[in-house]
């Protein structure tokens, strides 16, 4: 068993959602670092539901870049960034894709 197999256990029971990579036959599980509801924390900070941050296994996020799109909970998101932390996990920053007219 390698570290990536162990991380599968980590995602069980978390607020994990399935992510589908557009244009690829690939899905993976990630959990929400930020609540998807808009929240204001005083005047200084607002958490935007249109820009969620997710945590996933680094092997699942590998290859995602700013030209990638993913589908989560029926909505399409542009990938803003994917960074790994050296522990086998990575942080995926998303932004709700603009609908083309």
From TrEMBL:
A Pfam family annotated for this UniProt entry: Phage_attach
Domain of life: Bacteria
GO annotation terms (biological process): virion assembly
InterPro entries named in the record: Phage_Head-Tail_Connect_sf (IPR053734), Phage_tail_attach_FII (IPR008018)
Name by which UniProt lists this protein: Phage protein
Organism: Maridesulfovibrio salexigens (strain ATCC 14822 / DSM 2638 / NCIMB 8403 / VKM B-1763) (Desulfovibrio salexigens)
């Amino acid at each position: 068993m390698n570290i990536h197999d162990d991380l599968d256990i980590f995602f069980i029971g978390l607020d994990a959602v399935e992510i589908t990579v557009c244009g690829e036959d690939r899905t993976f599980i990630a959990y929400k670092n930020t609540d998807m509801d808009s929240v204001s924390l005083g005047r200084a900070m607002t958490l935007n539901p249109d820009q969620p941050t997710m945590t996933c296994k680094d092997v699942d996020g590998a290859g995602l870049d700013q030209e990638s799109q993913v589908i989560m909970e029926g909505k399409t998101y542009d990938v803003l960034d994917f960074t790994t932390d050296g522990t086998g996990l990575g942080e995926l920053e998303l932004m709700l894709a603009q609908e083309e007219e």
